[in-house]
């Protein structure tokens, strides 16, 4: 409860800052302090110190897994604000409002990691996405940003409609909105009703929309490309992973109960293959690094879907690892990308000669995304593949996953090739020493987590 | 009135909404169709709420707990609130778009394709 209340509260504080504090550059410091407070409050909560004793009536269920994920999301946001705070200021006059919306998004993330009731799932998803519509369109004079915002808004509200229909049908079938213990408490509704299955299919479609899985992924490249790069960085990482956390809970609780009536594993294996196929194949043909990263986020979503397929202990550990590896690497890549004046592959030509530190850290982030050993991304992919092997069925999905991971190496390494083996003079915005230091710390975290995964997993138990 | 009537009406409204979203080209009309979808869900939730109350009282010999099914009616209020929030953001986005291109036709949304 700490994190939910603190994030909403600090969002309101940021709103007041926008007219009480005149100095533009102090907003990001206030936001960073707020995120630190939020992180501390969440860690207190992890160890049983709850400042607010609010009885949510079984609507929210706190687990260690959810707390650890909250900490990861808040810490990633902190890194994001520290690295790209200056670029957010360049976006326009409304810096404080930008951070306000970021805090509200975090409130949605914290709801999604703890929900135990379909009402909370709905509210969490909406608190998460409504601020994002505004953030996507925050570059008001830019037509591409406008277009991305409108597209995202229309698609997002449509998928909300689908989700609500699903929830209503599930309610019709079971008589409760609670996720757990629904069937146990009511002996009225034996068996699995037809309405519940249809409702779950609606929910599946709308969640696929939110996490940009295959048949519903078509909005992703346009929106990620059109949104200002600083927003894309946030949207493609923390928000997407939070969607997966919510999706995983829905699958493990509701879908595993109904698995006798419908073959979820088959549906998920088809979604996985399609997502990996579309994401990887189209990413190969992109000329802009930003658009390539948008497609790569689809293909990474395909790997995160492995967790929903297998739903065992490896899957939840793997999803946690994936959220660290993917969020940090993508935030780092975007932090460099917003400094570039030209975001095509040619724009990166010769970066290693002019900015060796940026090029080296960028290479580590790309290694992590591609899944090269010794980085966190490798272990994340390892856990995902291992989780499917543990289930003992559908091993061809693993084979396909490995093949697609090999394809992804091609387009990630094109950036490295441009940076190291081509000549050119990359045009960049100015940046300070602290920016480089931040990137080095980020790369170090990725390697440390990759070398000592227990550092992360021990947190789940101690 | 049997529950089937409500379910069929809600399903019909929902299908009209979905079809409208898929075939109309005006952003405001698409948006209205989304609202239609949300309102069909509201209708369905209220109908299910009464249905569960009736089932419960029939099973317990005419004495159901007074709270049976109220959670769905609460849900309807939440949907209304969220829909209002979405309207305020969505119309702002459509106005922003209109200021720049003087049209609300979604066929104009093709700058990102290439």
Automatic annotation (TrEMBL), chain A:
Enzyme class, spelled out: translocase
Gene Ontology MF terms: NADH dehydrogenase (quinone) (non-electrogenic) activity; NADH dehydrogenase (ubiquinone) activity; quinone binding
Catalytic reaction equation(s): a quinone + NADH + 5 H(+)(in) = a quinol + NAD(+) + 4 H(+)(out)
Annotated compartments: Cell membrane; Endomembrane system; Membrane
Main location: membrane
Record carries keyword Metal-binding: no
EC number(s) from the headed UniProt entry: 7.1.1.-
Annotated NADH:quinone oxidoreductase/Mrp antiporter transmembrane domain residues: 116-404
Top-level taxon in the UniProt lineage: Bacteria
Coiled-coil residue windows: none
GO biological process: ATP synthesis coupled electron transport
Pfam families from the UniProt entry: Proton_antipo_M
Transmembrane segments: 6-23, 30-49, 61-83, 95-114, 120-137, 149-171, 191-211, 223-246, 266-285, 292-312, 318-338, 359-382, 394-413, 434-457
A GO CC annotation given for this chain: plasma membrane
Membrane topology of the entry: Multi-pass membrane protein
Family: Belongs to the complex I subunit 2 family.
HAMAP family (UniProt xref): NDH1_NuoN_1
Subunit structure: NDH-1 is composed of 14 different subunits. Subunits NuoA, H, J, K, L, M, N constitute the membrane sector of the complex.
Function, in words: NDH-1 shuttles electrons from NADH, via FMN and iron-sulfur (Fe-S) centers, to quinones in the respiratory chain. The immediate electron acceptor for the enzyme in this species is believed to be a menaquinone. Couples the redox reaction to proton translocation (for every two electrons transferred, four hydrogen ions are translocated across the cytoplasmic membrane), and thus conserves the redox energy in a proton gradient.
Protein name, UniProt field: NADH-quinone oxidoreductase subunit N
TrEMBL record, chain B:
Molecular function terms from GO: NADH dehydrogenase (quinone) (non-electrogenic) activity; quinone binding
EC number: 7.1.1.-
One example of a Gene Ontology biological process annotation: ATP synthesis coupled electron transport
Keyword Zinc-finger in annotation: no
Primary localization: membrane
Membrane topology summary: Multi-pass membrane protein
Keyword tags: Cell membrane, Membrane, NAD, Quinone, Translocase, Transmembrane, Transmembrane helix, Transport
Compartments where found: Cell membrane; Membrane
Spans traversing the lipid bilayer: 6-24, 36-55, 75-98
InterPro entries in UniProt: NADH_UbQ_OxRdtase_chain4L/K, NUOK/Mnh_C1-like
Enzyme class: translocase
Superkingdom, natural source: Bacteria
Pfam families: Oxidored_q2
Recorded GO CC terms: NADH dehydrogenase complex; plasma membrane
Catalyses which reaction(s): a quinone + NADH + 5 H(+)(in) = a quinol + NAD(+) + 4 H(+)(out)
Job of this protein: NDH-1 shuttles electrons from NADH, via FMN and iron-sulfur (Fe-S) centers, to quinones in the respiratory chain. The immediate electron acceptor for the enzyme in this species is believed to be ubiquinone. Couples the redox reaction to proton translocation (for every two electrons transferred, four hydrogen ions are translocated across the cytoplasmic membrane), and thus conserves the redox energy in a proton gradient. NDH-1 shuttles electrons from NADH, via FMN and iron-sulfur (Fe-S) centers, to quinones in the respiratory chain. The immediate electron acceptor for the enzyme in this species is believed to be a menaquinone. Couples the redox reaction to proton translocation (for every two electrons transferred, four hydrogen ions are translocated across the cytoplasmic membrane), and thus conserves the redox energy in a proton gradient.
Subunit and partners: NDH-1 is composed of 14 different subunits. Subunits NuoA, H, J, K, L, M, N constitute the membrane sector of the complex.
Family to which this protein belongs: Belongs to the complex I subunit 4L family.
UniProt cross-references to PANTHER family, sorted A to Z: NADH DEHYDROGENASE SUBUNIT 4L-RELATED, NADH-UBIQUINONE OXIDOREDUCTASE SUBUNIT ND4L
Protein name: NADH-quinone oxidoreductase subunit K
Native source organism of the sequence: Parafilimonas terrae
């Amino acid at each position: 409860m700490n994190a939910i209340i603190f994030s909403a509260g600090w969002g309101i504080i940021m709103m007041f800052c926008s007219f009480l504090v005149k100095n533009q550059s102090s907003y990001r410091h206030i936001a960073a302090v707020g995120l630190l407070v939020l992180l501390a409050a969440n860690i207190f909560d992890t160890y049983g110190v709850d400042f607010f004793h609010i009885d949510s009536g079984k609507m929210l269920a706190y687990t260690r897994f959810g707390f650890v994920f909250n900490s990861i999301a808040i810490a990633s946001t902190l890194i994001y604000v520290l690295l790209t705070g200056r670029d957010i200021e360049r976006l326009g006059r409304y810096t404080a409002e930008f951070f306000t919306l970021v805090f509200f998004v975090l409130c949605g993330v914290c709801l999604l990691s703890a929900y135990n009731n379909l009402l909370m799932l709905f509210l969490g998803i909406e608190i998460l996405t409504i601020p994002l519509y505004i953030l996507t369109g925050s570059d008001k004079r830019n037509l591409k940003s406008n277009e991305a915002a409108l597209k995202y808004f229309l698609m997002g509200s449509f998928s909300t409609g689908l989700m609500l229909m699903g929830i209503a049908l599930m309610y019709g079938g079971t008589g409760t909105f609670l996720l757990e213990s629904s069937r146990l408490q009511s002996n009225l509704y034996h068996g699995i009703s037809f309405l519940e299955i249809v409702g779950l299919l609606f929910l599946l479609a709308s969640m696929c929309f939110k996490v940009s899985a295959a048949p519903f992924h078509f909005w992703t490249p346009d929106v990620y490309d059109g949104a200002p790069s600083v927003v894309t960085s946030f949207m493609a990482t923390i928000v997407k992973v939070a969607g997966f956390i919510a999706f995983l809970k829905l699958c493990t609780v509701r879908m595993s109960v109904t698995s006798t009536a419908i073959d979820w594993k088959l549906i998920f294996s088809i979604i996985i293959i399609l997502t990996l196929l579309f994401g990887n194949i189209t990413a190969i043909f992109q000329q802009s690094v930003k658009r390539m990263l948008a497609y790569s986020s689809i293909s990474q979503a395909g790997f995160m879907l492995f967790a929903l397929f297998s739903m065992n202990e490896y899957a939840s550990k793997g999803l946690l690892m994936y959220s660290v590896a993917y969020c940090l690497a993508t935030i780092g890549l975007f932090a460099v990308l917003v400094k570039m004046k030209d975001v095509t592959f040619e724009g990166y030509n010769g970066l290693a000669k002019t900015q060796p530190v940026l090029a080296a850290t960028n290479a580590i982030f790309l290694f992590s995304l591609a899944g090269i050993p010794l980085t966190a991304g490798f272990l994340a992919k390892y856990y995902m593949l291992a989780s499917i092997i543990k289930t003992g069925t559908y091993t061809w999905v693993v084979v396909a996953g490995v093949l697609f991971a090999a394809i992804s190496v091609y387009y990630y390494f094109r950036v490295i090739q441009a940076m190291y083996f081509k000549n050119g003079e990359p045009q960049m915005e100015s940046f300070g020493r602290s920016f480089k230091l931040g990137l080095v710390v980020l790369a170090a975290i990725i390697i440390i987590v990759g070398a000592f995964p227990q550092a992360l997993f021990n947190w789940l138990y101690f | 009135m049997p529950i089937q009537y409500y379910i069929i009406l809600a399903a019909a409204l929902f299908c009209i909404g979905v079809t409208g979203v898929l075939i109309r080209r005006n952003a405001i009309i698409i948006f209205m169709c989304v609202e239609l979808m949300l309102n069909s869900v509201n209708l369905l939730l209220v109908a299910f709420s009464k249905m569960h109350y009736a089932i419960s009282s029939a099973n317990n010999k005419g004495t159901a707990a007074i709270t049976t099914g109220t959670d769905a009616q609460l849900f309807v209020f939440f949907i209304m609130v969220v829909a209002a929030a979405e309207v305020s953001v969505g119309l702002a986005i459509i106005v922003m778009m209109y200021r720049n291109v003087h049209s609300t036709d979604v066929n104009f949304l093709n700058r990102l394709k290439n």
